[in-house]
Design brief:
Length: 258
């Protein structure tokens, strides 16, 4: 699932793949920084519907579109390279619908169980370290749970029709953009820089970035998003096609928002 940049055995092509990987990563990092950093000001933006709507359009339409346009011009990035459509995907029509609803249900269960799925291993990892450090220094109390600052339900209008339209827009844009940027393109960057066998690096780093991009939803949102990210990254490697994940992501978000 590496970038389609031609035969890697051709002279100079390996260096081109590496430079393409850095180009991808340099385009992705500012988006990740925005996705993580906007948790500090989203609670203020949500009080002004026009301002919040404008920001959401920039974040999920204009900026991703500009990045994809640049990558298309710079790297001749195709929909398959962006992993929107898997190469040689066997999923067509009703098969795509069935697998989408199947994995949407499975991913939603993982999302709901995200807090214990992340907190228990995290606690087991941190407990020995905390004990060892406490023998040397006095450690402050660390609380792995914190309250939510923002949720997209806060941004939905009261009118039933408008609420449905806005919820669908939020769900579709988040499903498409987040899967392409956090799963598809990030896999391409990792594959180009570290090789296609760097699977564990891809799964854990993409899940952590995706989780921290949802920290404003509180500890439960962070843990659930991280668990979802782990499962989605693993599933993407198995399916080789982002379309079921995009649709499943959008369905889950729509259910949560609405």
């Amino acid at each position: 699932m590496a970038l389609s940049l031609g035969n890697p055995n051709l002279p100079g092509n390996a260096e081109y793949v590496r430079r393409a990987g850095w180009t991808l990563l340099c385009c992705l990092l500012p988006y990740y920084a925005l996705a993580i950093g906007d948790g500090f000001f989203l609670p203020q933006l949500v009080h002004s519907a026009p301002t919040f709507a404008a920001y959401d359009i920039v974040k999920f339409v204009i900026l991703p579109g500009a990045i994809l346009f640049y990558l298309q011009r710079r790297l001749q990035l195709t929909p398959a390279d962006a992993c929107l459509i898997g190469r040689g995907s066997a999923y067509r029509g009703w098969e795509l619908a069935v697998i989408t609803f199947w994995w949407a249900g499975a991913l939603y269960v993982i999302y709901l169980l995200g807090e214990p799925l992340i907190m228990i291993p995290l606690g087991l990892l941190l407990a020995p370290l905390q004990w060892a450090l406490s023998l040397v220094v006095t450690l402050p109390e660390v609380d792995l749970q914190f309250a939510a600052r923002f949720g997209y339900a806060m941004a939905l209008p009261d009118n039933a029709v408008l609420r449905a339209v806005v919820a669908i827009f939020f769900s579709l844009t988040a499903g498409v953009v987040e899967e392409i940027f956090f799963r598809g393109l990030f896999r391409q960057a990792v594959s180009a820089l570290l090789g296609p066998t760097a699977v564990k690096t891809y799964i854990f780093s993409s899940a952590l970035i995706f989780g921290f991009a949802h920290w404003e939803q509180g500890s439960i949102g962070l843990y659930r998003a991280t668990a979802f990210g782990l499962a989605a990254a693993f599933l993407y490697l198995k399916l080789g096609d982002l379309r079921p994940l995009i649709l499943a992501h959008a369905l889950i978000d729509l259910y949560i928002f609405w």
